[in-house]
Design a protein that fits this description.
This protein has helices at 14-22, 30-38, 40-44, 46-51, 78-83, 85-96, 131-138, 143-159, and strands spanning 52-58, 67-73, 101-108. It is α+β, with helices and mostly antiparallel strands.
């Protein structure tokens, strides 16, 4: 029995394959929607982005501006987002450099909350600083500054 690998034709560059896959999705302003999805927290800030998610961006026929943005909104935050819709439109315009969105419609349904990971503070390993450095640190009169310099020294020693 011979091991034959499936043959997929001539080797192609990745860019040609990406064009085939991405073109249908990037039609009619899909580029703007894709960047809006990716950069949503940067555009509107944490408070709004935690409670909203862009669903659709619909442009009028033959125009590249004046789109209607449909947002999925947590029901508890719908009133807040409704009042801030003008601010959201201005933030999107500032991000793209043109007035891309002219109206926002809200679709109230729960959004899966993003789990915020508890960041642990890395405790430095117990490395002793060289005696001459420790002596120079203890010559400083400010106790808080001494502790900060000792922590900094330990971090530097740990990196090496």
């Amino acid at each position: 029995m011979t091991n034959k690998r499936p043959y997929f034709g001539k080797p192609r560059t990745l860019s040609t394959l990406i064009d085939i896959v991405a073109k249908p999705h990037l039609k009619k302003g899909g580029y703007y929607f894709a960047t809006l999805m990716l950069d949503w927290p940067k555009i509107v800030g944490d408070t709004i982005s935690n409670n909203t998610m862009p669903l659709r961006l619909i442009f009028p026929k033959g125009q590249g501006a004046g789109a209607t943005l449909t947002l999925q909104v947590n029901p508890a935050a719908a009133l807040m987002v409704g009042f801030q819709s003008g601010l959201i439109i201005e933030k999107i315009a500032a991000f793209y450099g043109k007035r891309l969105v002219s109206a926002i419609t809200l679709n109230q349904s729960p959004i899966a909350m993003k789990q915020q990971k508890n960041k642990r503070i890395n405790q430095p390993k117990e490395h002793k600083l060289p005696a001459n450095i420790t002596e120079r640190i203890h010559e400083i009169n400010n106790q808080a500054l001494q502790q900060a310099l000792e922590r900094l020294g330990c971090e530097i020693v740990n990196k090496k």
